[in-house]
Amino acid sequence: KNAFTLEKYKKENTDVLLPVYRLPTEKEWQEFASGGLNIEIHPTGIEPINKKKYKNYPYHNVNFAKENKANENITAPVRTYLPNSFRIYNAIGNVAEMVQEKGTAKGGSFTHQLSESHIQEKIEYQKPQKWLGFRCVAFYPVEHLTTH
Question: Residue 10: pLDDT band by 50, 70, 90 thresholds?
Fold first, then answer.
């Protein structure tokens, strides 16, 4: 009877703003995955770094050629690869990300080739997959912000 629920908390604390979480639309996903770069020129949203420190650093956890032993075909910790210029990690590779459009994922995964993982590419799915995940967007409803 005394269990905590968001509904009960909101009734008792009417001045608290709670964010809304949802999957991004395909367009939103493409915008954040691009890192602000032109995806025609940079189809994975990462501008190659020529600094000596990062010269041979992998950019994405995707399935490269079979002779490449660096990729173990598993997911990697979030900060294993470089972020894009928006500081978003693994937009390309690691796991393909569901978007609001039903049955559509973006970004490829550790099982997909880099060419399948470009920002504009769509990956279709119909059921849970080992390579499929999601990233939520959060926002505050505008109508709630304007009424206070």
Answer: confident
Q: With bands split at pLDDT 50, 70 and 90, how would you rate the model's confidence at 58?
A: confident
Average pLDDT over residues 39-57: 79
d(Cα 101, Cα 103) in Å, to the nearest integer?
6
Its pTM stands at: 0.79
For the chain, where are the E strands, in sequence order? 20-22, 96-98, 104-106, 123-124, 132-133, 137-139
Q: What radius of gyration do the chain's Cα atoms show?
A: 19
Distance from C-alpha of 138 to C-alpha of 136, rounded to nearest angstrom: 6
Tokens found for residue 34: 């691009």
Cβ count within 10 A of residue 35: 20
Nearest residue to 25 (alpha-carbon basis) of 127, 99, 96, 119: 99
75 exposure class (CB count in 10 Å sphere: 0-12, 13-18, 19+): middle
Phi/psi region, residue 36 (left: phi>0; alpha: psi -120 to 50; beta: rest), is: left
Is residue 53 classed as helix, strand or coil in its secondary structure? helix
